[in-house]
Structures are given as C-alpha cells and as structure tokens.
Amino acid sequence: MTQPAKQRVSVIGAGAWGTALARHVAEKQLPVCLWAYESDVVESIEQRRENHRYLPGVALPSGLSATTSLEEALAEADYLVFAVPSHVARAVLRRMAPLLSLPLPLISATKGIEEETLQLMTQVMQEELPAAMQDFLLVLSGPSFAAEVSQGQPTAISLAGLHADLVKQTQSLFMTPSFRVYADDDVIGVQLGGALKNVMALAAGVVDGLELGHNARAALITRGLAEMIRLGAAMGADPRTFYGLSGVGDLILTCTGPLSRNHSVGMRLGRGEGLAAILGSMQAVAEGVRTAKAALGLARRYDVDMPIVQEVNAVLFAEKSCRQAVGDLMEREAKGEKARS
C-alpha cells in the first residue's frame, strides 16, 4: 500500500524564531525548507547543521534544508511559515506573490507592525499576496523564546485564523508533547498582543535598568496590559484575547525573561547607554524599537491614551531621560484603575 506523502513545510526567515520553528517541525520527521537572506546562514546550516548567526549551538536535523532562493523554498510547499522582521515583510511578500500558483496555508510568526502604514502583518499580506490566499492566512504568537523551544522546553502558544477547520488542521502541524497550540479566531488581537508586548518590554527593561524595584515593574506590566487592551478594543479585537497566551502570557515572558532582546535594550537604556550604540551591538532585531513608533501612530489614529507607549517613544527618539519618563508617568493626573485612560 502506498504511503501518503509527508506534508512539506517552508519557513521564510531564518532568524532565531524562524529557525526554531523550522527545527521544531523537522523534528516531527517532516521535510522542511528554511529560506534565509544571508548566504552564510545557508552555508552554516547545510555544512555544520547549525545557524551560527542567529541560533548558535543548536543542532539542526538532517530533514531541514536551507536556501537563499525563494523559488526553491516555495516550490511544492504544503504550508508556509512567515518569520521575517516586520520592516522587510512587505518586500519579501512582494517577491513571494508571483511564485504562489496555488493557495496554501500561510502562518505569520512575525511579531510586529509595519511602521509606515501601521498595518498588521496579515493586512500587509492581504495587500501583497494573490486574492486566493486571503482565506488561508493564520497567526502564530505567544510566550516562546526560540532557545527554549529549540531545547524542547514546554511551550504553549496561540494559533489564530478566521476558519476553524483550517486552524484545527494547522494545529496538528505544530503540536508535540512539549509544544501545545491553542486555537483562536481573533486574528487582530493575537497580532497586537505579540507586537505591543515588545514595547512594554522596553519599558520594563528601563525600570530594571534604573533599579526601581519589583513593585515598579509589576505596575508597569499591569498598566501596559491596560494600554494594549484599550488599543485592541478600538481596533476591533476581543479584549479577552489579551488575557491569554498571546497577550498577558507573552507580556510577562518578554518583560521579565532574561532571554528577551527588547527587555535587554530597555535595561541598557536605563543604565545610560545610547540607542544607536545598543542597536549597533546587536545581531538580531529588537522589534519593539520599530513597533514603538507604530504603536504611537495607532494610538493617535484611534484616539487611545497610551502613556507608556508615549514615554517609550520620547526616550527612544526624543532624547528624553529614562528617569524623567518614569517620573512623568508617576505624576500623571489621578485616575480610577478601570478608567478608559
């Protein structure tokens, strides 16, 4: 009896998260092709079975191949996972569009907002990809450091899509005893949670860099969540989504976990380093820096008060001192906790 062909998965973007997801799926004995922009990353994966640039020290299975050719990566794929940084997402999607002859599930694992247009990743995809792809877009987000996923540490994450059957089908692609996937239908909320928590992690890092204590960090996280919910509700998301894995779960992890790039940037800002020097010393992208501008733009577009986002932008782009930003937050007009602002 002929065995059914194995589902083929292509991961677009070979940063730490894209590589970790590619490794995770390949460990299920599925053929995986990982597209990388950098030729040295492909060479490292093919010759040393390791992504030396973005996920060093993690062995990659033989069923995972790598390429710099989008044509090769997209050929005969049954699923696509999209994990490129948000600021280059549109350009990569534009290159992908003419190569997609048939619609297939496309899972966005990019946690960011396009800075120029203030669009979420699925909105960029809707503009750039063939119309037949519209019903096949999903979002994967939640508390998930790439290094821990690669070590097989227990992880739970959200998968959102508008069609329950497609979400359920795609759940099974990722599910393992150490990687649990919860279904959701709030595509906007899951994306906003994954993007905005990076901005709050910058702020939490500043609090820790200034050594203001656990009380201050807990307050920052809580009020940050309130800002996320306010913007989400204004944009049509379900407020309950922000109390789940892609909201408060990812927020807590990124604001407190030692592996968080955004928290690390915030800490260094709080200790007095300049933003340009910090970013220049980093290999990977800290999405929160770009997302901060986009979040402030969305707050203004939807007339939502987001004081933490406002102060993060002032620190990042207007040379405001971290201590002054914290002071201005603390000295705001007294309000009720359940107030809308």
Q: How would you characterize this protein structure?
A:
Strands 3-2-1-4-5-6-7-8 form an eight-stranded mixed β-sheet, sandwiched between helices. It starts with 8 loop residues before the first strand and ends in an 11-residue tail after the last helix. It has 15 helices and eight strands. With 341 residues, it is an alpha/beta fold.
Short description:
The protein is α/β, with parallel strands linked by helices. It is 48% helix and 11% strand. An eight-stranded mixed β-sheet has the order 3-2-1-4-5-6-7-8, sandwiched between helices.
N-to-C series of helices and strands: EHEHEHEHEHEHEHEHHHHHHHH
Strand content: 5-15%
Class by SSE composition: alpha/beta
What is the radius of gyration computed over CA atoms, rounded to a whole number of angstroms? 20 Å
Helix content: 40-55%
Can you count the beta strands?
8
Major sheet summary line: 8 strands, mixed
What is the straight-line distance between the termini? 64 Å
Q: Which whole number gives the mean pLDDT?
A: 95
Largest sheet, spatial ordering of strands: 3-2-1-4-5-6-7-8
Oligomer: single chain
Low-confidence stretches: none
Shape descriptor reads globular
